[in-house]
Amino acid sequence: MTATEKGRLAGPLSTSVANLCRRLQPQVSPRTAAGFGEVLRRLGAPLQVAVAGRIKSGKSTLVNALIGRRVAPTDIGECTRLVTRFSYGTVDRIEVVFTDGRKQVLPFAPDGMIPAELGVDVDDVSHIEAYLTNAVLQDMTVIDTPGLGSLDAASVSRTEQLLGASRGDGESDDGEPSDELDEVSRSAVAGAEAVLYVVTQGIRADDQQALAAFTAATASREAGPVNAIAVLNKADTIAPESVDGSDGDVWRAATMLAQRQAALLKPRVADVLPVIGLVAESAESGQFTSADAEALGRVAALDDEVLEMMLISADMFTSWECDVPAGVRVRLLEKLDLFGIRSAVDAIRAEPDITAGALRRRLLDVSGLAAVRARLNTVFAARADGIKAAAALASITALAHASGDQAERQRVHDAIEVLLAKPEAHQLRLLEALTLVASGAVEMPEDLAEEVLRVGSNADLAAQLGKPGGSRADLATYALERAGWWRSFASFGATPAQSRVAHVVHRAYFLIWQQLREPAGGRR
Ligand SMILES: Nc1nc2c(ncn2[C@@H]2O[C@H](COP(=O)(O)OP(=O)(O)O)[C@@H](O)[C@H]2O)c(=O)[nH]1
Ligand SMILES: [Mg+2]
Q: Spans of biased composition, class Acidic residues (predicted)?
């Protein structure tokens, strides 16, 4: 109990915000204090990453791929209409949480998944909590959402609530003191801190709106590329001939399309990564078996002409006369779809002795999941401290605001101002500057923009300076030199907006220089 309750704080900034919460708790109303308690609990938890996007975009499939286990139901069933939170636990356990706060333990389905049908009235369900032993969840809680744009209004509102989109006007009409959190405050503290946004070939206006609502609800200031990553899922289903310049190559077409979508989703996300969630899920979750590898071997042994015919469509693949049993072909299709099958066949033909394990790894490579993982690590993990602290400050502000007590609001406001003046709060300013530049809201020459991104996105000093492996002395000299450069850029030759960013970057370099001057491994 104690370990999870206390949690680990993501870094110095989260620690400062947690201290602020604890200090203020006795000075505010019981209701606000309860909200602060919730904020504290959240600060100690791993980064909360919501997987969001339109219905059927492949969110649950991607969640399974990321966790490395096929546990979230895909396609149909009640559960796909509910929000499910996947957190780390020492024992696998699923709980249904009802809207009235009641909880009920749920057995796993025989295949190890969350049962597609719950056996309770879904209208009474708030969400599902799944605790799993998978290590990935130690660093991030993954929240699967039903999706926007579904025909089912309840699913949409559950998703919107989670993303913080359905905020009331904040009017509270009761004068009665209560320790209960009102709806507004609850959604402010419950919202996810980061989002993995899943799009497919077509982006619609509501994708943009959902991302906008999410960033408004999570960050004290305008956020975007700092806490949102987008993927173009189902990259395998893109017809290359529909994308000019793709030369008939599916992955190239997907990459080009993803770039175009990034331009559409700007400034909400920095870029869009193509991925094949289905292939990633099969390769990562133990679904791809040696029986599948063997079946693929038999498909690879078919005549070229037959194979080309079969790979034209799913129907052709399953119905064409050939000596691989139709049931086996259906299974391959479910796990890999046509593109995955073709990739596996190519791999087998190039290397007939390839083992099932090597084939699985090849499929994983093809899926593009590694790039998504890497991005999650660099973007979210490295910035978790700043992201969590910013989300917590936004919640604290919302709670104080909702209290309706002017003195309380002022006290909280003052405390936040003091915190923001501390050196560790600089990370918040840096994240903000990074967002402004990455989104194009503040225009910068390309090389400078890249420098801001580098300084703002890396956790490690040498990487921030773009000099991995540099000696401490060299790094210090370089940091000081860049600090000086950005200071003069702030004063001369910059627009007012650029100048504000430049001041932040100058200070970032100065702080890096200070750290480098400290004797390695200790503080003075
Ligand atoms: N071809 C292909 N199908 C996919 C991919 N990802 C998911 N799917 C399929 O799309 C359907 C919907 O997926 P699901 O994860 O339930 O979508 P959700 O509603 O967004 O959670 C399922 O049949 C998946 O097998 C992909 O990358 N490629
Ligand atoms: Mg789903």
A: 171-182
